[in-house]
Amino acid sequence: MAERQFDVIINGGGMVGLAFVLALRGSGLRVALVESRLPTPWRAEQMQNRVSSLTLASQRLLERLGVWPGLASARISPFEAIHAWDAGGGVRFHARDLGEAWLGHIVENGLIQQILFEAVQANTETSVFAPASIEQVNRDDAGALTVRLEDGRRLGARLLVGADGARSLVRDWAGIGVRQRAYGQRGVVATVRAEHHHDLVARQRFLAGGPLALLPLADGRCSIVWSMPEDEAEATLDMDEPAFHAALSNASEGVLGEVLESESRAAFPLRAMHSERYVAPGFALVGDAAHVIHPLAGQGVNLGFLDAASLAEVLCQAVRRGRDPGALATLRRYERWRRGDNQLMQSAMDGFHWLFSNRDPVRGLARNLGFALTDRAGPVKRRIMEHAVGLRGDLPALARP
Ligand SMILES: Cc1cc2nc3c(=O)[nH]c(=O)nc-3n(C[C@H](O)[C@H](O)[C@H](O)COP(=O)(O)OP(=O)(O)OC[C@H]3O[C@@H](n4cnc5c(N)ncnc54)[C@H](O)[C@@H]3O)c2cc1C
Question: Domain ranges in the chain?
């Protein structure tokens, strides 16, 4: 027998889980959040090496959740142009082509998580269990879920949402399988200062080993994500600073001059994963629990935010109609809404990865042709941009222009 009764329990208070909790505010649903770790406090004097490139859709969503001013007053880094290139050609996008001031913002993950967490804690409608973890989940024939925490407390609910990242336990409890593959790459991240200012341009150079992204920061430095084969990543982590700076200057073709300083070098494994389903009776998955994509287009958390807002919208409609939030028919609406879009993005990333990650001359020709066509064909370029920054597509109300 549960000691406390809720309608929805969210497992995982990362960026996506926290945004989901806030999106449910005012729904009338009784909500609980379970998170195993308290967020590490964000510090203004230390730029974190894990950052996200937030789309305009994510910005709108965070504005409507009331947390954007908190981010903006702490530290956000806008960019107004994107330049992607390889040895044979390139393409440029500018915010003014879309009539926008910016194409997006670079924000530290730890800052996003902290500001969202503060907003969740300030919201008396939500019960927060952190640090805490779920040990066992049971669902009876009538659809009532009982969740047992490690400390023995029992919580009741109709729906358990997995926002617990790539290794989601909720996914296992729901019996949902995954399709996954390792790229055999790691993403080397660091914060670097180069000779020249980035001029508010987010840059990406496609190299045979993987893409190198130079994301512009407000203080003139760049946050880099350099995808490369595992063994090269190991060697890159082991390099002394002069060797690392020289390798990075070379890999970026000196587009910002020489790299002069760097800090917080680290590497993260890269893989692709997609859950076979996003929902099961009494269960739903959002964010990296449902899909992990290559960071080359910086879309992971942006897709997760759209999942969170879409699922919240579907649940709010269900509540208004007096429906069970854990019923499969309700949850399937969310799955139909989001899975196709996320699959498309994942396939596009896989396609990019295939096209760019080698020296085959035929693929080289295809790349150059693609760059040239995209750069010259105005309407095509505009559509690609509108999708990438979140001005187009079947967006949830919280993220719509
Ligand atoms: C190198 C790199 C660069 C990237 N760059 C970008 C980018 O520029 N833009 C972008 O959009 N995306 C980017 N991504 C992807 C992005 O980081 C992820 O998509 C995002 O962090 C997913 O957020 P999430 O909240 O779904 O999951 P997570 O961040 O994994 O959060 C899961 C949360 O659940 C908690 N948790 C886990 N298990 C349990 C449990 N059993 N019980 C309770 N709590 C639990 C964890 O503590 C954590 O707080 C990048 C990824 C990498 C690797």
Answer: 4-76+104-180+272-399, 184-271
